[in-house]
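To the structural biology subgroup,

Please find below the input and predicted structure for Copia protein, which we are adding to the shared reference set this quarter. The sequence is reproduced verbatim from the submission form. If anyone notices a discrepancy with their own records, reply to this email rather than editing the shared folder directly, so we keep one authoritative version.
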Amino acid sequence: MASTASELTWIKQVLKDLHIEIQKPMKMFCDNNSARHIASNPVFHERTKHIEVDCHYIREKVQAKEIETPYVKSEDQLADIFTKGLIPKIFEDIVSKLGLIDIYNPSLRGSVENKN
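Predicted structure (tokenized):
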């Protein structure tokens, strides 16, 4: 989450340099309720002692209303296609949701006639 938050902050700054202001908080969808809770809760618990600077960075961005961390169900998490090895059914579902096409699929090229 910290890496993604850092990238979002960088993109927002680039857009600002291009005179494009983003007023709303950026959304970083997360399928881990524990991570979302830790990011938004200013109180550390005994079980979160090991979390260091990354958590503080995320929490700072969430409390400053720069980033929101809405929940998304694991099966709807489109980022998994880029970060995990998926079974074919889930892979195909995400590919269709993203609108990706296989440019090497012959059925997408139209009919090819033999000109001999």
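Summary notes: The two ends are 58 Å apart (CA to CA). The CA atoms of residues 25 and 64 lie 9 Å apart.

Regards,
Lab coordination
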